[in-house]
Design goal:
mainly beta; 4% helix
Length: 540
């Protein structure tokens, strides 16, 4: 408990010491402390009963200069599901110094940035995912009249250490007209490796070209990335005799006007998994990952929709028959009825539909010799699909509802190695009732039907928010249809939250369902657990 307490004392002490200079400072403290317990259904899967993640950050701004520093501590270990590289009781995690003057900027230290949409390069932090792949090095940018040039070089953060390999990048964003932009980029990884293969290079390069067209309510993006030769990696072993190129093709378009919108995406990925250190290939913690490849599916916010959740499949694997990437599409549309023509209520009705479908690349695999040949725009085995409809209704000034239907297909064998193919239907109903000026009651009921895998689930949530500051909730997910009695588990949770200004405090007790937790299409695995959790977010 000493390190979290020290960070809290330091945070409040710094607030007092810096109060007279607050116009130049900002900061934050985020702390999550969990005491894991056993119960009759779930045994603590870790070695430590008490674990905590703590982040203390300060930012300084003065004229054209800025600086930041971040401390982190993990007591006794990081929360379950986080990488073991977060093993410091307390340590310096991030720091940087930057200068920005009109068209020119330069930064040194730990840097966050991305090229285009991130398919070739993105460094970012997401604490809920346990992901921080900041680049330790230098970053420089200059804005000419119609061209913005950006360059960087450095090593990637991995816990409190740095990668063995190095990254370098150069990007040019060209504004051709009011409607057309072009984006060029190159990202290069260098990592020493002794090889007798004359075709092997210690450098691996990604080249990207993107065109952007915008006209009124219509927009479209087309991006192509070519990845140079990269060695096959299996179970942490680098096979320099097996070299494969890769590529990505992404097309996105959309149209919006008052009350209506539609957005569509097509994407093809082949051998696009890319890490600063080759040996990190395919790790479950997203450590040392260079590019940002989210799953392009609907990000649902009902619990049962996240039991069978899809992750992007950009990697080569010669297991389970072989895979080399993915190909698929997503389309999303909504329509907001006006009060005059709403067919359900005189207030407001919004209809939304979303469909995504993802497949492996159609290819032939020589599993013995570890080689393959793929077809460019051909669809192979289906991995996943999600068709969903949503109706939101404002029935009165103080009552609104949301109805959601989801049909999912999940190829568990192709994606996880075993388990067959799973077809599910999910219904969910949310009801929101405003009570007075500052109180709201939310009731949610959901159900998942399937004849496959673990069979049927039911779930529910009751949440009451009062005075716009306090909220109390209780929820439960129950796999009542499981054929194994030991797996018929109530994943219950009860908790409370307090919010005021820049302060948020939370306390909850309950069970965590094992599986994937996903944010923005990027996921991490968490084991089953049970415990008491306290959370705190403070800002200055």
């Amino acid at each position: 408990m000493k390190a979290p307490l020290f960070i809290i004392i330091l945070f409040f002490g710094s607030q007092l010491a810096l109060s007279q200079f607050m116009e130049n400072f900002s900061g934050s403290l985020e702390s999550t402390l969990t005491y894991y317990t056993d119960d009759d259904k779930i045994i603590n899967p870790g070695d430590s009963d008490f674990r905590s993640n703590n982040y203390l950050r300060f930012n300084y701004f003065k004229n054209d200069f800025s600086a930041n520093v971040q401390l982190e501590s993990y007591i006794e270990e990081a929360l379950l599901g986080y990488s073991p590289v977060f093993n410091e009781k307390i340590g310096l995690s991030l720091f940087s110094l930057a200068y920005k003057k009109e068209k020119f900027s330069i930064e040194a230290g730990y840097i966050f940035d991305q090229f285009s949409e991130g398919l070739s390069f993105r460094s970012w932090e997401d604490r809920q995912l346990g992901l921080n792949n900041a680049l330790f090095g230098a970053h420089i940018a200059y804005q000419f009249k119609t061209i913005r040039l950006t360059g960087f070089a450095g090593k990637q953060k991995n816990g409190f250490d740095l990668s063995d390999g190095s990254l370098m990048g150069l990007n040019a964003f060209l504004n051709l007209s009011k409607k057309i932009d072009l984006d060029f980029g190159i990202v290069s990884r260098y990592q020493e490796f002794e090889s007798e293969n004359p075709d092997f290079s210690e450098f691996t390069n990604l080249y990207s070209l993107k065109g952007i067209y915008t006209s009124g309510s219509f927009y479209s993006h087309l991006e192509y990335i070519y990845k140079g030769n990269d060695a096959l990696v299996e179970f942490g072993n680098v096979f320099d005799s097996r070299l494969f190129t890769g590529n990505a093709l992404s097309l996105n378009f959309g149209y919006f006007k008052s009350g209506f919108g539609i957005d569509g995406t097509f994407r093809r990925l082949e051998n696009m998994a890319f890490y600063t250190d080759r040996e990190a290939y395919g790790n479950i913690y997203n450590e040392l990952i260079v590019n940002y490849i989210p799953a392009l599916t609907k990000q649902h916010n009902v619990g049962l929709s996240n039991i069978y959740v899809y992750q992007a499949q950009p990697q080569i694997s010669f297991l389970s028959g072989g895979k080399s990437g993915e190909i698929g599409q997503q389309i999303d549309a909504f329509y907001r009825f006006s009060k005059k023509n709403s067919f359900l209520t005189k207030y407001q009705t919004v209809l939304a539909v979303n469909y995504s479908s993802w497949f492996g690349l159609k290819a032939t695999y020589d599993l013995e010799n570890r080689t393959y040949s793929s077809e460019f725009l051909a669809y192979g085995e289906q991995y996943y699909s999600d068709l969903n409809f949503e109706i939101k209704n404002q029935w009165s000034t103080n009552w609104k509802t949301r109805f959601l239907w989801i049909n999912q297909y999940y190829n568990k064998t192709a994606l996880e190695g075993n388990g067959g193919k799973v077809n599910t239907n999910i219904l969910a109903l949310d009801s929101y009732l405003t009570i007075g000026a500052k109180n709201e009651l939310r009731i949610q009921a959901e159900h998942l039907w399937t004849q496959d895998d673990g069979k049927n689930w039911a779930g529910g949530l009751i949440e009451f928010t009062f005075l716009r500051k306090f909220s109390l909730y209780v929820n439960d997910l129950y796999n009542y249809g499981n054929e194994l009695e030991t797996e018929r588990i109530h994943y219950y949770n009860a908790g409370a939250t307090y919010r005021k200004g820049k302060t948020r405090l939370s306390l909850n007790y309950g069970r965590q369902r094992g599986g994937l937790i996903c944010i923005g299409g990027v996921c991490r695995f968490v084991p089953k657990s049970n415990g008491l959790t306290f959370g705190m977010n403070l800002y200055l």
